[in-house]
User: Which sequence fits this backbone?
């Protein structure tokens, strides 16, 4: 069984969730784990000196629970899919194994080292400040953003977290969140598909090479028999 772990990170309202949710519709044997599902209860999230809740930190997340979910997928991707009501597709040819793809989406997935070490592919969605602010203000959050929250906390924390991410992670493909959903999906789908194809082609080569040896050996035996 082959596996591929894809990380889709990015700033708030950058389009990472939309992209992540679209990929399983195109990629067989894939599913999503979203970091937003692991926020701690609002009552335990600390407040900074400006009175803003500090949601944009790893301490605001149950990263241990998130890692347990990821490890559950690693142990048995097929069982993990069934547990979510999904079915795996059997598309193997010539004995090659299926590739199971885990899509991990979130704003701090590359800042948590134990998680970051698992990624085979890394993508990061970004949009300009003004677009991000407009998108953020148009969405309804629970609890709602207090006045001045974006400029006083959200944007500064994004810049800080991005700097930390770049200091500890390499191999990130940065995506322009202003591009159409279709264009972004096509680009990432193509890249991931090429990687899954590469993984399965390794199995085909391993299957064919011994077959060639058997054929060659058989031919040699026939030649010897004729000489005798």
Assistant:
């Amino acid at each position: 069984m082959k596996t591929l772990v894809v990380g889709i990170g990015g700033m708030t309202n950058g389009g990472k969730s939309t992209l992540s949710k679209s990929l399983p519709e195109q990629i067989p044997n894939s599913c999503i784990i979203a970091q937003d599902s692991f926020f701690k209860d609002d009552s335990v999230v600390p407040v900074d000196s400006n009175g803003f809740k500090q949601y944009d930190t790893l301490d605001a997340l149950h990263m241990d629970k998130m890692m347990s979910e990821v490890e559950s997928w690693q142990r048995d991707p097929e069982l993990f899919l069934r547990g979510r009501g999904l079915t795996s597709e059997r598309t193997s040819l010539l004995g090659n194994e299926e590739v199971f793809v885990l899509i991990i989406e979130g704003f701090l997935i590359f800042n948590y080292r134990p998680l970051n070490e698992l990624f085979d592919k890394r993508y990061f969605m970004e949009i300009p400040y003004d677009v991000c602010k407009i998108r953020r203000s148009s969405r309804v959050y629970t609890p709602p953003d207090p006045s001045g929250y974006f400029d006083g906390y959200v944007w500064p924390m994004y810049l800080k977290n991005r700097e930390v991410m770049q200091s500890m992670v390499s191999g990130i493909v940065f995506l322009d969140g202003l591009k159409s959903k279709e264009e972004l999906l096509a680009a990432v789908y193509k890249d991931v598909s090429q990687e899954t194809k590469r993984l399965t082609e390794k199995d085909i080569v391993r299957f064919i090479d011994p077959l060639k040896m058997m054929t060659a050996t058989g031919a040699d035996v026939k030649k010897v028999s004729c000489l005798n």
User: Anything to note?
Assistant: DSSP finds seven helices and five strands in the chain.
